[in-house]
Amino acid sequence: MLMAVLSLILSAGLVAFFFYITYKVFDWFSLRQNLQWAYQAASLFFTTFPLCLTLPMIIVCAAVLYVLLTYRTTRRMGRLQSAVLNIREGDYQTVLPIENNDALGELEQSVNSLAVRIDETLTQQKATEQAKDDFIVNIAHDLRTPLTSVLGYLSFISEKDLDPELSAKYATISYEKAKQLEELIETLFDTTHLTMDDLQIHKEPLDLEQLLLQKREELYPQLHEADMSIRLKIEAPTINADGALMARVFDNLINNAIRYASEGRFIDIVGVPIDGGVRITLATHANPIPAEDLERIFDKLYRLDKSRASDGGGTGLGLPISRTIVELHGGQLSARQTTDGTAFDFYLPN
Questions:
Q1: Angle between the 318-328 and 164-194 helix axes, to the nearest 10 degrees?
Q2: Comparing 3 with 201, which gets the higher pLDDT?
Q3: Measured between alpha carbons, how far is residue 248 from residues 44, 79, 162, 262, 266 in Å?
């Protein structure tokens, strides 16, 4: 009895639904025709099947419809679960297809983004670890080379029968190598000091032209030996900067120019006011840096081909230190090729 009642209620609901749809789509004449068709179909249905079988058939049909509707969602959920398990096991290349912009679609997109971020983070971490290892190896080599020379020449000097003139020569070489070692240690100290978050810079008005004239005088022996000279064109004589740090920037840039572009003979330094600050350009006129190296030269310990340098190359720390100093002043330091050499540009705000 209960099954029969439920079957009648469900049938009435289907008829009412059919009536509503027909009302919305067709006119009254079509509605009457469709109602007659529905009545005939219902009569045939209930005549063919007993009431006791109607409800089970409806339940089976509903179950089949439910399975068909939920299959896609179940499949997507399974893929999500597999992707999460793969990420947990270390496979970050999983990419889920985004089938729909629903809640599951947002979850699929989030899983994809998570896998990409983790993969990028691990790749960057590996690169950082490799760079650190390279830094240690290279700096150990740089420290050992002059130290080995110092120890070797000092061992010669310690010989009792060594000619005094030769002993003096060896002592001079040892002193030069020791100074090279001292310079390298100071450079390493600067690198560490400049990367500290609590580093304080002390800005004050500086006479840019006077600072550069002083640098030209201090570096005259190196310039003379390389047969080079510095040409100045300063239209913005005053800058607001830390004098000691800015002197280190020009030391590094000028020494870099002497080392790699001595054939050009001239180092041109131009300072012009721009946008409330000063733009400074240091340009050389020989041996331009290859385009693929223009950004890498600011990486720690990265060195250009030693055949390009007049003295076999530097420590690879001067340019990174210079960029750090300029950035601490709120500016930017970059390199670019010119028609006959390389130019280093940096901007200092006032």
A1: 40
A2: 201
A3: 100, 58, 41, 20, 20
d(CA 11, CA 4): 10
234-to-52, 89, 219, 271, 273 alpha-carbon distances in Å: 103, 61, 19, 5, 9
Would the pLDDT of 93 be above 90? no
> Is the pLDDT confidence value at 83 over 60?
yes
Helix (H) or strand (E) holding 35: helix 28-48
Distance between first and last Cα of the chain: 94
Q: pLDDT band for 48, please (50, 70, 90 cuts).
A: low
What are the b/e assignments for 178-187, b being 16+ CB within 10 Å? Answer: bebbeebeeb
E strand or H helix at 192: helix 164-194
Q: What's residue 214's pLDDT?
A: 92
CA 251 to chain centre: 29
**Placement of tokens 């080379």 in the chain:** 145
Sheet holding 229-234, edge to edge: 229-234, 266-274, 277-283, 342-349, 332-337
Place of tokens 């947990």: 88
- Strand pairing partners for 344? 282, 335
Radius of gyration, alpha carbons of the chain: 40
Instruction: With CA atoms as reference, report the closest residue to 282 among 340, 327, 343, 330.
Output: 343
d(CA 131, CA 299): 10
Residue of 282, 283, 276, 278 whose CA lies nearest to 236: 278
Q: Is 6 left (phi over 0), alpha (psi -120 to 50) or beta?
A: alpha
